[in-house]
Amino acid sequence: MSPHPEMFRKVQLSVEFIGYYLDRNNRLSSMKRGLEELLDANSQLQDEQQALRQKYDQLVKENAELSKINTDLKQAVNKYHATILYVAPTKNLPNPDELGKLPPPQRITPSVTHNLAYPGSGIRPGPPARHSRDCGPLPLNECGICEQSKDQHLLAKCDTCYLYYHLGCLNPPLTRMPKKTKLMGW
Hints:
Layout (H helix, E strand, L loop, with lengths): L14 H73 L22 H4 L41 E3 L6 E3 L20
Antiparallel strand pairs: 1-2
């Protein structure tokens, strides 16, 4: 038996195949470099995560210790408070549960700000500024829902019913003044 004649035929490589093969090798080598960089970054991040986890666990322990100390101190204060009230029942002492708490911040309304004095400066606020022409007092509009005339700058006038509404009184409440358009009137 003689071998088949196509077995000895030379393989001819096309230019496209050689270009593809070289490009593939370049891409594989760049992907391997990228993979090595990502593995290094991953190991660094895992080390950092482990260090942060240890620090977190330590802070949790410290927090538990401080919470225990806090509850012990509160119990001691309550005992002293009870003892003082037992010895002197007419003594007016503050509630120990409310000690150390800050009062909620108070909101200053525009109607109050013009009456505030400036301590130490010797300057006292005068009456509110008037327009250049004196046309009498400005009309105060009142909200159609809450029927209050406070926060005039937050009142929007409805073009259909001609009533004013606070932005917060509307359902749903608005965060800014609505825009007038040709189709929708506000």
